[in-house]
Design brief:
This protein is α/β, with parallel strands linked by helices. It is built from twelve helices and 18 strands. The chain has helices spanning 41-49, 56-70, 76-84, 91-104, 110-149, 175-183, 200-212, 224-229, 255-264, 285-288, 297-300, 349-355, and strands at residues 2-3, 6-7, 11-13, 21-24, 35-38, 155-159, 188-193, 215-219, 235-238, 242-244, 249-252, 269-272, 278-279, 301-306, 309-314, 327-330, 337-340, 343-345. The two termini are 38 Å apart.
């Protein structure tokens, strides 16, 4: 996508130096646009763990390039373990690492390994971008229909967290239909949940929508239900970090409450995802999807920028503890549909496996 008129992906290999991976360091957005150079597995693991890069698709792509860097260091199994341990919920991480291990596992020649790992990492990244583009092609039809129903008045989409191009290599999942609608001249406006505690909505989604020219309004996390009750939301579109083959959806904490409110107000609730975010082994999302718990400081403190300087301020009393669950699971019964690179299906086993029959057992 474009940043000040120039096309960027979120991660890419340096053209001149074969041991350097470049990525947009998202900790500085929206106030500074910083590109980081990553040279080692440890640096890539830190970039994922400390959320210089984040979002399911991008975590997968970063792990793919991390495994390429591992071919310069030798121990592929240790590198795989280190990268896998960084963040537990997004299934794309393990998926990309397994793909790399399969591709390079049997090769003993170092140069050959390196070449294979490099092309596999690029393939993971290219596929991620292409699948998101196709999600846009399928999802835009939903927005078009809503627009026609409204006689051309702007379609109001609510989204949570950041499932935009910053969460992938390009285009994004939840945002791809929105960008496609905007590009097709369909009037669209986005309600952006701020998404505490890390504020991916107000920091990242609002920034990327603004760069693209899409009308949007940042709202407090608890405002969505009110807006739905008053007919101000035509559809919810969110992303996912892991969706079971039965249709249960893990996504940023708070998504479940939006799905409940959507159900109560007959607002369609869509989840956009590339197939790399399906977990083909897990049947019960609520019981089986690991939910990341992060440090209490993310909840106790708020952060932002003042006069160009990053500042953190304590919000809660000094001696109050905090719990920080990163994700929740929305049961399949609350999901209207899944927008994938192959088309739109219902959130149930039969419909999902109908689109992806190669995963039938
Ligand atoms: O903790 P994050 O920022 O990596 O969380 C991921 C998300 O931004 C959302 O949950 C998103 O909808 C899924 S990633 C496409």
């Amino acid at each position: 996508m474009k940043v000040r008129g120039q096309h960027y992906r979120t991660i890419w290999p340096d053209e001149a130096e074969n041991r350097v991976i470049r990525l947009i360091d998202q900790r500085f957005l929206p106030h500074r646009f910083v590109i980081e150079e990553v040279r080692t597995v440890d640096e890539m693991a830190a970039a994922i763990r400390e959320m210089h890069v984040r979002g399911a698709g991008l975590i997968g792509a970063a792990a793919g390039y991390g495994m390429y860097l591992a071919t310069f260091e030798g121990d592929l199994v240790a590198a795989a373990e280190k990268l896998k341990a960084t963040r537990p919920t997004a299934v794309n991480l393990a998926w990309a690492i397994e793909k790399q291990l399969k591709a390079i596992g049997d090769q003993t020649n170092t140069e050959e390994r390196r070449r294979t790992a490099f092309s596999t990492a690029n393939q993971i990244a290219d596929e991620d971008a292409e699948f998101c583009r196709r999600i846009g092609e399928h999802g835009v039809e939903l927005i078009r229909r809503l627009s026609e129903k409204k006689g051309g008045a702007p379609v109001n989409v609510l989204t949570h967290c950041n499932a935009g191009w910053l969460a992938f290599v390009d285009h994004g999942s939840a945002t791809a239909p929105i960008y496609a609608a905007y590009d097709a001249g369909i009037p669209v406006h986005v309600w952006v949940d701020e998404t505490r505690p890390r504020s991916q909505g107000s920091k990242l989604t609002a920034w990327e929508l603004g760069e693209h020219g899409v009308a949007h309004t940042v709202i407090a996390d608890n405002a969505g239900g009110h807006l739905m009750q008053h007919g101000k939301v035509d559809a919810v579109i969110v992303g996912t970090d892991r969706t079971t083959y039965t249709g249960d959806v893990a996504n940023k904490i708070g998504t479940y409450l939006k799905a409940l409110a959507a159900k109560d107000n007959a607002v369609p609730f869509y989840v956009a995802l590339p197939s790399s975010s399906f977990d083909w082994n897990i049947r019960d999302g609520l019981k089986e999807i690991p939910i990341e718990e992060r440090g209490s400081e993310e909840v106790n403190y708020a952060d932002g920028w003042h006069d160009g300087v990053h500042v953190e301020v304590r919000v809660s009393p000094e001696n109050s503890g905090a719990a920080n669950f990163g994700f929740d699971v929305t049961p399949r019964g609350l999901v209207t549909g899944l927008i994938t690179e192959r088309g739109i299906c219902e959130a149930n086993e039969q419909s999902i496996l109908g689109l992806f029959p190669e995963h039938r057992r």
